[in-house]
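User: Hi! I'm working on a homework problem where we have to compare a predicted structure to a textbook description. Could you give me the structure for the chain below?
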Amino acid sequence: MPLNRRRLLQLSGGLAFGAATPGQTDIVTEDWSGDVAILRQAWATMHPGVYRYSSPQEISTRLDGLARAWSTPGSFRERFLALTQVTASLKCGHTYPSPYNSGDATVARIYPDRSLVPFLFRWIDGAMVVIRDDSGAGLFPRGVVITAIDGVASQDLLTRLIPLARADGSNQAKRVSLMEARGEDRYETFDIHLPLVLPLKDVAAFTLADGRVVRAPLLTLANRRAGFSATVEVAKDANPWTLSKGEDGVHRLTMPGWALYESGFDWRTWLGGVMDDLTGDGARGLIVDLCGNEGGLDCGNVIISRLVDRDLALSRDQRWTRYRTAPEALHPYLKTWDRGFLDWGEAAAPSRERPGFYRLTRYDDDGKTGLIRPEGRRFKGRVAVLCDASNSSATFGFDQTCKDNGLATLVGQTTGGNRRGINGGAFFFLNLPTSRLEVDLPLIASFPVTPQPDAAIEPEIAVATTARDIAAGRDPQMLAATDFLLGRRALG
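Assistant: Happy to help. Predicted structure tokens:
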């Protein structure tokens, strides 16, 4: 039965559950409502952005609905859908049930069968445009446009999926980007969520733009992983970035990710060397490719340190936390890489400016970490940054700093994130004991000093990708950036 879109949206301050009809296998009869009580306490006392876009009453109503859904027998996918609806309603790009921080048993329940489409794709004008065929039979050539799955129009599917995507504020570009399958993540958001709104198993019928209908076997998670690119499966301590030096004098630095928290790769030394060598090599320009890069560490600060000739103050967005000491009752469910997040101590100062929050001074006000100082050899050539809707955390901040200070020209598409501020910086992974699901819990909220629109960052040179580009294997953003650096294209 087709899904009624309104049942996915907020109704009278709450959310309707059971909006889709996921497969009724793996029926859960256990009462999980106790986990909702843990989630409620964590959000009420620790989540710094829980009320950024919703009122306390709206949040309470949604959690009440989740508790009812989780105390009523239903399939695992139905319960997972109910949780996803609630986390997505916060409009926070860092709050969601994450398979990355879940156990193997939970991941297996998220991917119980063959339900993944046999290709990778991008959304263009509401249609799915194939970027890689995984059918093993040449059924979906690169550039082929898919307009329906099992008779459901692709535009309708996208409409159903968007309310489930994690994104900051009204950033729809980020939501659409997350619902693509590009082979850039170990767990594609689209792969997780499509079976929640369109039950698929084993085989599906795909309608192409020319009217043909192709029936094809679906994939398992193992099948999807077999086709991962080297950038997805890069070894823990290996260099995930690549540098090419073009004969045209343009150096191209590709950085698919900055999540190097536990990596042994000495990225600061390598990246500093790359930037220092630009001047010695006589490079005419530098392109930093951040497409598909959500963020991680502030790796971009090394790049900026070679572009400035004086100290550069970073964004003066103030950082706030909702707590000084984490509630002791929640300690058993909180995991992170730094147990110091349990108690900010004197670094979290109460303020009349924002009641209910603590101003976090550790990162903002020591006079050092708020600055990027010139280092190494300054590069005076032109710099372009390829950006897209993936840029929503550290990469969002980098894009903003480059544009606001004229350090580089942004080329590509609207970023992720939000100019009204985002939540992140430090995290707990909230493990719900009965369901064994995990919800990422950001701990620091940034708020701009002056009012800002509910919007992301727009590039100076906007460049879209077409189905023809994909079919031809053409990178229009890279081509546009190259033309700009070589003086063959103006801004706009």
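For your comparison, note the following. The chain has 14 helices and 24 strands. Residues 88 and 296 are 21 Å apart (CA to CA). Good luck with the assignment!
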